[in-house]
């Protein structure tokens, strides 16, 4: 009966994909934002899988929110498509000693409200995220001890210890520059309602769970924006995103299901683009209480999951099994853990018996919809696979923002599904979520990560991270499932090349 239940759910998922292709066309109202020009303006409309989490650049950890923020705010340093550091608000930098980095700031930069950008804004921005433990990005910036103002155009960033990846930290989400004078005068709540940055586009409107609208900043210090208006629409349902693209309601849509790509490519006006990503889908398991505190139960969950079936049935074969979150190409990767799986349902049943659950057990499982490609369907299929070995699942599927709230509050139950990308391109980044997500505390792992974080010797750092991966692959506080690809659908009127970091810079998208 359990196998029948599993096959039935797989059939339901397959039918839902087929029915998604029969969705009703987009409404007339949805299509009103599209077109090469509207009222003489160049408008770019992008369909995303979820809404922004807000405009506190330090208090989120999601690529989708950052894809809006990068068009409004600037970092000190940015990375190009090849991963090389380029000037942004800092025009030059040097490492004076292992704990001191000096940055020379760009002149003539103004925030959207007219305030000049100065060293005081750097000090405020970086010290805020480095000192407030309640902020989501605190763990990635607490390495900064203080920022010393040398003059209005020069700052020294002082770290607690040697900091080998500071430039990487300062070129990713969590490091955007905030307007200190504006926030001091108006308060942070007012900033969140009317955010102000230095970027090529400025805030116009946010209709929660519907859209964010930005307009060109004519006073931008760099090359002026290529678009008069940007519209980021929130459309969690995959079928609706595809329908909006096909009917011209949007110019670009993210997270295109593999099953819809042929349909998009069959139209004269639309096409799909695919690229690799650093995003790895994984399960985070509570290690401090409940049945998943037992490593035998965690191993049984891992062995019960047929990753090949997940990839073939939900992703049309577009995915790669993995036993590590650090994919090849990311610093610290251990290639012999990539491209592998531990599927063994009979051994999973034996482990449950050894753990005292011969008659089965029940776990709570939190999943999301619209947070990553096929997240809802993946959660459902995993739940069915676990049922096959005797693990009953209480599955809760939440919309993206509610899922994030629950994850950050630590109330997701025994296990949750998430897909993390690596915006730092360094193993250091992903392990910041290990303890908050799972409660996992292994002194050996803690020491290895601490040593790697301050080690200026790349070879030694790499070995530290590889040792961590070996330990985690055995102890399984997280169960790594697959590396996801990135699929986009676009109107053929635009030029777009996917980035491996999945960030959407509007000015990298042009009209043909």
Automatic annotation (TrEMBL):
SUPFAM superfamilies: Periplasmic binding protein-like II (SSF53850)
Keywords: Signal, Transport
Family: Belongs to the bacterial solute-binding protein 5 family.
Location of the Solute-binding protein family domain: 84-440
Chief localization: membrane
Extent of the signal sequence: 1-20
InterPro entries: Peptide/Ni-bd, SBP_5, SBP_5_CS, SBP_5_dom
Membrane disposition: Lipid-anchor
CDD domains in UniProt: PBP2_NikA_DppA_OppA_like_2 (cd08498)
PANTHER family xref list: OLIGOPEPTIDE-BINDING PROTEIN APPA, PERIPLASMIC BINDING COMPONENT OF ABC TRANSPORTER
Gene3D superfamilies xref list: Dipeptide-binding Protein, Domain 1, Dipeptide-binding Protein, Domain 3, Periplasmic binding protein-like II
Protein name according to UniProt: ABC transporter substrate-binding protein
Subcellular location: Cell membrane
UniProt entry tagged with the keyword Coiled coil: no
